[in-house]
């Protein structure tokens, strides 16, 4: 895993339109590869428009259980971003946004070791996940289809 983060930003509210823009960016960047995106249960991420576009783009969407911030990898990334932002006050929104973009854009380069510790290796097993229902997955362990519960 590269830990590279694909972002879509704005200065108002996140809606299904921004989620769709993110899906298009991810689909273009990883064309020809199997894409699985793990999301929380925000309405704008579970709506029909988003699900239909994901299907059209060949992206599998997986939703973590409600009220499970410990399973939401973006919360761990935000912890890193917030720790870097605390040392300075930003008068201008553009400077603030540029700093956030720089921190997030460095996740697969200079900050990769730190991000590896925050996210960890054991979480990155998505390529072998088999859904049991909307909120639970199992990992195929071998050719005999043994499974173990992971979430």
* Computed structural class: alpha+beta
**Range of strand content:** 5-15%
Number of self-contained structural domains: 1
Q: Which shape, going by the Cα principal axes?
A: globular
N-C termini distance: 20 Å
Largest sheet, described in full?
Answer: 3 strands, antiparallel
Helix content: 40-55%
Number of strands: 5
Under the CATH scheme, the architecture is 2-Layer Sandwich
DSSP summary: helix tally: 6
Mean pLDDT value: 79
The CATH topology assignment is Nucleotidyltransferase, domain 5
As a whole number of angstroms, the C-alpha radius of gyration is 17 Å
Order of helices and strands: HEHHEHHHEEE
- Uncertain stretches of 5 or more adjacent residues: 143-151
